[in-house]
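INTERNAL TRANSFER SHEET
From: sequence group
To: structure group
Subject: ATP synthase subunit delta

Please process the attached sequence and return the structure record in the designated field. Keep the field labels unchanged so the import script can parse them.
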Amino acid sequence: MSSSAVAKRYALALFEISKENKQIETVEAELRVIKKVFLDNKELGVLLETPRLTIQKKKAILKDAFANVSLPVLNTILLLTDRHRGDQIVGVVDAFIELANEEHGIADATVYSVRSLTDDEKNAVSASFSKRVGKKSLRITNVRDEDLLGGLKVHIGNRIFDGSLKGKLNRLERELVR
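Return from structure group:
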């Protein structure tokens, strides 16, 4: 079974439990923190993969590190560790977030702009682009990219909407070269 299929299966189980307990938002927030911890501390992932430590010691480390998370989240992480799938934790988080976004009609978007966007501008971008991708709203992450010269570049899933001045100049150059 592929890694992503494994992650999706665990995420789906955790999602169903969270939905039953009406804790989707809480679990999602906890999982985002866990993902950040794993991405910021690569040593933690290496530690879970090392054969030098027993599974009990690995689980004790995880229990200490994530003592404040809800029981379903902690149990999922411990189960992944038991089954030697600690490398799947970040994948489970990503799959869970996808399921939660689908449930709420939200999409994650990365918006590249020359300067930081205000809340009103983020809301306007969300209102405009959410309709294009068939969602209620967008959860926007704004990234400053001074190479754009002006305008916006919006990434939503595997779709890119390039309304930047740099993108327009590149398209114009390709047309003129033909």
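Handover comment: The radius of gyration is 20 Å. Residues 3-20 form the longest helix (18 residues).
Transfer complete.
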